[in-house]
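Technical note accompanying the year-one report. For the benefit of new consortium partners, we illustrate the data format agreed upon in the data management plan: each record pairs a sequence with a structure-token string. No post-processing was applied to the example shown here.
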Amino acid sequence: MRILVVEDESGIARFLSEGLTEEGYAVDLATNGNAGLEKALSNQYDLLLLDWMLPGISGIELCRRFRKENASTPVIFLTVKDSVDETVFGLEVGANDYVKKPFAFDELLARIKVQLRQKSGEPTVLTLGPIVLNPETRQVTIHEQSINLTPREFSLLEFLMQNRGKVCTRTRILDHVWGINYHDNTSVIDVYINYLRKKLGVGGPCIHTIRGVGFIAKDDE
């Protein structure tokens, strides 16, 4: 999953980037509204986290312009504003949720998961041959035996399973699992695919290499 964070306070931006990355999300950052809008319109994100007050165009204006081009990607506002009128205004311009600063990271993470779940419409549990992945509990089992994955390994497997039967190009995998900063280092995908195959054991062959293109997850016959 790929998230765009638009926040001009460097401490908060770093805190969000590090925290979300540890949870397995690919995170892109922008420090002003204009740069944020450019990134939002030129890349494919699963969710936007926007500060209300930004240099350049405001988070409100960014959200309004973004909604003209994209009606479905969830948007969450992060702001010190907390009056009822301001909350309603933010929701009316297209935000899906509203988190007041200062916030607890666990609460924000829970709200992000709710929005991503509602957007994807994915079943609670994903299956691939003997592999069962539960996005809610972040548990993976094979033949009912629990498998321990790192957050990045989990995100990679989840993305492949969400696209079961479809070829996932290296660019798409990097975008959704690592983010744009890794575009010049596609070898990281091969490293993590190997990690997954070793940990999945009998389930590993369910992830196939499409030479020169990417990978596909499918039930082996």
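Partners are asked to follow this layout when depositing records. The first strand starts at residue 2 and ends at 6.
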